[in-house]
Amino acid sequence: MNRSFAESTARERVTHLLDADTFHEILGPAERVVSPHLALLGVPSAFDDGVVIGSGLLDGQAILVAAQEGEFMGGGVGEVHGAKLVGLFKRALVVQPAAVIVLAESGGVRLHEANAGLIAVSEVMRALLDVRAQGVPVIMLIGGANGCFGGMGLIARCADHVVMSDIGRLAMSGPEVIESSNGVEEFDSRDRALVWRTTGGKHRYLTGDCDVLVEDDVAQFRAAAMGLLGQSLPLSLASMEAEHALLASRLSRYGDCRDALDIWQRSGVAEPLRVADMEAGQMPVLKALNPKELA
Amino acid sequence: MNWETLLAALFGNSHEVKRDGDLLSGSAEFNGRTLTVVGTTNHAAIGVELALAQARVVLNTVREYPGRGILLLVDTQGQRLRHRDELLGINRYMAHMGCCVELARRQHHPVIGLVYDQALSGGFITSGLMADACYALPEAEIRVMRLPAMARVTKIDEQRLAELSKSNPVFAPGVENYVAMGGIRALWSGDLKACLSAALLDASTLDARAADGAARGGRRLAAQVTARVVNA
Fold first, then answer.
1. Distance from the B71 Cα atom to the nearest Cα atom in chain A, whole angstroms
2. pLDDT per residue as tens digits for the range A286-295
3. Are B211 and B223 within 8 A, CB to CB?
4. Comparing C-alpha atoms, which of B222, B151, B231 is closest to residue B181?
5. Which chain B positions have a beta carbon within 8 Å of A84's beta carbon?
6. Mean pLDDT, to the nearest integer, of A38-62?
7. pLDDT score, position A290
8. Quick one: which of B22, B26, B21 has its CA closest to B13?
9. Which residues of chain B have pLDDT under 70?
10. pLDDT tens-digit profile of A244-288?
11. Does B226 map to a domain?
């Protein structure tokens, strides 16, 4: 039976992602490692500061895992939350797991700890890239209801691989932020169809920003993560030049597009108007028809 | 500080840094060596084009000038808030910029960030905060959000935020707060040439910010939590 990733808690996601009974939490709730800043502001704390971290087995292989809890402050990154992520990546340098898997669900920096969160995001990026440099794959899983935004959206694109569900979202600024800054004409945050075709898993998959697209199902995320174990994409001048060429090409080909529908149509996606109704499983076939045009 | 004034204070006439829109780029002679200078001005909103352009300068430096120092000049209002940028995947463009800086550091280029005017939110993460060390001028402004906006979003009374910000560097705007938390290594004042010279000598690939933050009392838990995770 399917277990909705979006409707699961962080701990449920981890429990069902890993091989049964292999998850060992680090700095779990019993340790009471909480944010000292929230109490000062009169805001309730969480005993894990909104991120579950630990180790376990996936397909019999040792991995490290982090899962953000979107229900706590939108998964926002503060001092302790960020430090747990940094610590996990630094731990990976020592124990050399088969992968570090991050179940990302976050609006970015936690405003209540804005400065600490901003610095923490860059520290996470540096630590993550250290892990990649040692050949340990970093795999980002994105499917929570809150999406992956802000600093976490940057972190996601520093990983070796990104797996998304079709209902997951990945972007920099949330549509509400863009609307409040530049008006509803710029980005109507209440237009759910627009939001999803701009930041959702299908568009990110068709453009290559998401490597594997799955349904909203923990088992499918698990299968995708298993398939990516051992696949490291080291950072090098050659890989960065290739990335640069890809991004420059995307800008020149689609920079004047005003909607994902325009991008899909121009790139040759068959029946772009039907993409929204398609199952996640149909997307690879669609993409394969025009492998060079989009990504 | 105006970017031209800054460059004159650092390099006198010995630089070929040009402005192209909001992009600053070029090279400068310093203590007998050539540095790459790249960054933004005019409180630039970092969109896909500007992220890509800065990354290009960094990549060219790595490709053509082994070991050359890189000075990142930060003046940004953060990421550009446009539907089009999100459509194109601005987070990937900005992450690319950050990864290029990281590649440069890894390839033994000293990378120094300097916030000379404004550093806001995401635009700061993938430039100055990815450097070996980031410095700031005392008059520079660094923040995620101003207190009134923060009060609206968090629904915490603005007066309360203002009061708490006097003793807690963790959320309020202010360059001193970032120094206290270790995000900014130090403020540069007086002889900027001496500051740059010292920074280049001090450049290190190790990330000491959490330790600095703890020692300065601005970010007490980050380093110890990280250590507990590593040693668990």
1. 18
2. 888 765 555 5
3. yes
4. B222
5. 225-226, 229
6. 95
7. 64
8. B26
9. none
10. 999 999 999 999 999 999 999 999 898 899 999 999 999 998 888
11. no
Say yes or no for a CB contact (<8 Å) between A259 and B87. Answer: yes
Q: Please tell me the total count of domains within chain B.
A: 1
Q: Using CB atoms, which residue from B106, B145, B219 is nearest to A79?
A: B219
Give domain A10-232's CATH number out of 3.30.470.30, 3.90.226.10, 3.40.50.970, 2.50.20.10. 3.90.226.10
- Helices B3-11 and B192-202 meet at what angle, rounded to 10? 80
* Closest residue by Cα to residue A216 from A250, A270, A264, A166: A166
- Surface-to-core class of residue A272, CB atoms within 10 Å of its CB (0-12 exposed, 13-18 middle, 19+ buried): buried
Residue B154 sits at the vertex; the CA angle it makes with A75 and B137, to the nearest 5 degrees, is 90
Q: Select from A26, A165, A251, A42 the least CA-distant residue to B51.
A: A251
User: CB-CB: which of A119, A171, A258 is closest to B91?
Assistant: A171
Residue B158: its chain A contacts at CB < 8 A? none
B147-185 pLDDT per residue, tens: 998 898 889 999 999 999 988 899 989 999 999 999 999
* CATH number of the domain to which B46 belongs: 3.90.226.10
Tokens of B50: 């500007």
- Cite the residue boundaries of each domain of chain A with CATH code 3.90.226.10: 10-232
B76 domain residue, yes or no: yes
Does residue B228 form part of some domain? Answer: no
Which domain covers residue B27, as residue numbers? 3-203
Residue A26, chain B, CB below 8 Å: the answer is yes
> If DSSP codes are grouped into helix, strand and coil, which group holds residue B141?
strand
Task: Give A 32-61 residues with CB within 8 A of chain B.
Answer: 33, 36-37, 40-43, 53
A178 vs B81: CB contact, 8 Å cut-off?
A: yes
Phi, psi of A43 (to 5 degrees): -110, 135
Q: Determine which of A73, A118, A149 to mutate to test the interface with B (most B C-beta atoms within 10 Å).
A: A118
Place of tokens 């990546």: A89
- Calculate how close chain A gets to B50, using CA atoms only, in Å: 11
Q: Report yes or no on B147 lying in a domain.
A: yes
Across the interface, which of A157, A237, A250 has its CB nearest the CB of B88? A250
**Contact criterion met (CB below 8 Å) for B40 and B94:** no
